[in-house]
Amino acid sequence: MRRLGIFFICCTVLIIAVALSLNLGNFRIPVAQVFRIISAKLFNTAMPEIEKYQDVVLLSLRLPRIIMVLLIGSSLGISGAVSQGIFRNPLVSPFILGISSGASFGAGVAMIFFSGLPFMVDLGAAIGGFGAVLAAFLIARSPGGFTPRLSLVLSGVIVSSFFTSMVGIIKYLADSDSQLPALTFWMMGSFASIDWASLDPVIYIIPLCMLPMVIFSWYLNILSLGDREAMLLGMNVERWKMFFIALVVIAIGSGVARCGVIGWVGLVIPHIARAISGPNHRDVVPLSAFLGAIFLLIADNLARSATSGEIPVGIVTAIIGTPFFVYFLRKREVALWN
Amino acid sequence: MELNRPAISLEDLHFSYISDQPVLKGINLSVKVGEKVAVLGRNGAGKTTLFSILSGINHGYQGKVTLAGRELKQMSRAGISQQVALVPQKHEPLFPYLTRDFILMGRFCSMGLFGSPGSEDLKIVEEAAAETGAAPFLDRPYSTLSGGEMQLVLIARALAQQSEILVLDEPNTHLDYRNRFLVLDLVRKLAEARQMTLIMSLHDPNDVIQFAERVVVMHEGRIVADGRPVEVIDEALLAEYFGIRAVAMKNAAGNLIFKAVEAL
Known about the structure:
heterodimer, A: mainly alpha, globular, B: alpha/beta, Rossmann fold, six-stranded mixed β-sheet, 9 helices, 12 strands
């Protein structure tokens, strides 16, 4: 019953947040008008009286952007919950294996050496991100074919710091008038240039990765007990660890490649989810997807309407994420973790 | 159930973590279904290693391990857990799972690929909790329980695996005087009620005499004595393998007990 109640509240909040997001912006569209335009489009009826490009702003700019925000936000939240379960560590985010710094390096290389070619930044970020994770794996893997979790965290940290310094070299080489600002903004994450075309293929990849995370969420309870205990209970630990890590890396990697690095969501959201639903991963995993989507939607709304310009969304998530996190830590210090 | 069938059979079992430093040096052991066996030995004698092999965690051993007539190396991970439930010495939880959810994890080995626990599994959890006395704290987080209560929950989780063999690694080491008795008494009664084969490592020879019907004494990776506790354990054995001078006496009820008096 409680589970159903939380689900209902999440859906309601999400719908309200989406409606408000369609209305908000430097170009405000009244909520009633939003509904009229969308229903006219959906049911192919005559468009209502439209002022100055309202339908273009709504349908071609805001709607695809909101869909992208929901996809990325939910994938960050759910991947954070899965990562913290796998690595048994409250400080773990989905970027733990070096995906963000690897992707930044790849994007930087693309911006400087292959600028002008279409989709090169996305491709470079994807190659860099997946390459970093692969490197972390190869470093951590023991000769017996087993990958201890602590070794993985450590090698992820090593790979991250290596690629962070490589990003430094790229920044040093970059042209300080055009390339450097572009890379810096990319690394802070943004949804500013999202249209319908850029949703493809993320709109397929992320739900396809999230679905198995939810289906097998109970397995994370067992995995979270540690390698030895999970084996005692009959789990093929190595296989399930790889399965979950692969889902996280593909979901996060495809999002990072398109929208850049957006921090904090994957770290903070699972803690908030646990405070609401308790530690059972059957509840935490789907709830983190909802909360991640809602949180990032709020952050993106602030990013695009708080000032006349546009603040990179990665900055907003950190600025509103930190006090939020501290508040929850202070309020439920025991229940949050252990 | 046929009681003379071997539940566990070990033939010439060798194991080493680091080459040239063998931990087990040729173990031969056969345990019948329903037997209650205590394994006695000093720290480092190889007891925990032996239990890890039995529960399928340590691979790479030499020799033959057979569980209920099937070779261990031919069995799946989940198949082993359906056969052997091991109660660890202690579990330090990271997430404050409810005790009910924690015991439910014992059902994992019986799930299909897309399986998640259903009402049948929840019933098994309730029964296991009732049998071990863990029922009153089913809805409390496992991490808030006392050491004795945690041990009862770990035993309940092992029961939820519905295995034939119950292995306990030093089940009462961390417990107070009352709980030490309570846990061993509970385990003995459970094994009798469910006709489970019981293997537990213990440190106190008096516990062995009181709760086991057979003792296997391990020393430096070998079995050095095997038999009925009152016949096997004596002052000479305790001096030779445990480095302790102990005196044997009879208590008021006429049972044999040992009192340690000097470290040799």
